[in-house]
Amino acid sequence: MLVNTKFLGKVEIKGSEILTFEQGLLGLPENKKFILLALDSDLPLALLQSIDQQEIGFVVAFPFAFKKDYAFDLSEEDKEQLRIEKEEDVIVYSVVTLKESFQDSTLNLLAPVIINNRTKLAKQIVLQDNAEHPLRYSVNAGAYEGSAK
Amino acid sequence: MIGDQIEVKILSTDGDQIKLGIVAPKTVKVHRSEVFEAIQAQNQEALQTVDLTGILKNTKK
Fold it and tell me: CB–CB of A59 and B46 under 8 A?
């Protein structure tokens, strides 16, 4: 099927690639079908694109590339909802709030997007609000290797 | 009590201020609604369109 994307024009995707967010994303409970698309970049970024609305497209980042010690537990409820059986099935992404200059951008480490790559179920979960995983983590903070400063 | 497992306690009162505590099993997440609202607002901010040409390698249209 053809999806109208926010940054990549019209993209052909397979139904099997569609991610289902049963609860949508926080603040967007109606948007339940998304697709993860690669962005042609040196940075570990992707586009989380809503199938139904072109404007609903988030740039997401692989958080561990920016914060090596980023770690959290999934609650039993989250594991059940996403039908997670093995750690290897889990993919984690953080929503990026982009600024005019990428160096000023931040990652949302407080509410990561959890994807079960086997079942294609996904959810944006909320971690405990503390300094270890803030809402706005500067992309600069972890001195990501490969960024030209 | 809320349901069978969640207890709302009054921790202290001070004039017209009341401090509430929530006692819940570890399996239940307890968040102040400000946290959810802040995340929703952050998601909205993340949706603001920004020029990606600084990030993408191939900027041909």
Answer: yes
pLDDT digits 0-9 by tens, A39-70: 989 899 999 999 999 999 999 999 999 999 99
Tell me whether strands A45-50 and B7-14 are parallel, antiparallel or unpaired. Answer: unpaired
Helix/strand/coil percent split, chain A, to 5: 10, 35, 55
Residue A91: closest CA among A127, A51, A120, A66: A120
Q: What is the ipTM of this complex?
A: 0.90
**C-alpha to C-alpha distance for A34 and A32, rounded to whole angstroms:** 7
The count of CB pairs under 8 A between chains A and B is 82
Q: Shortest CA distance to A58 belongs to which of A83, A16, A27?
A: A27
Q: Which of B26, B42, B45, B53 to mutate to test the interface with A (most CBs of A within 10 A)?
A: B42
CB-side exposure of B5: number of CA atoms within 13 Å? Answer: 7
- Is B42 in contact with A102 (Cβ distance < 8 A)? no
Which residues from B are below 8 Å from A56, CB to CB?
Answer: 47
Output A14 or A149, whichever has higher pLDDT. A14
Q: Please name which of B23, B42, B9 lies closest in space to residue A97, comparing C-alpha atoms.
A: B42
Q: What is the pLDDT, as a whole number, of residue B25?
A: 85
- pLDDT the model gives residue B50: 78
- A73 by Cβ neighbours in 10 Å (0-12 / 13-18 / 19+) ranks as exposed
Mean pLDDT estimate for chain A: 92
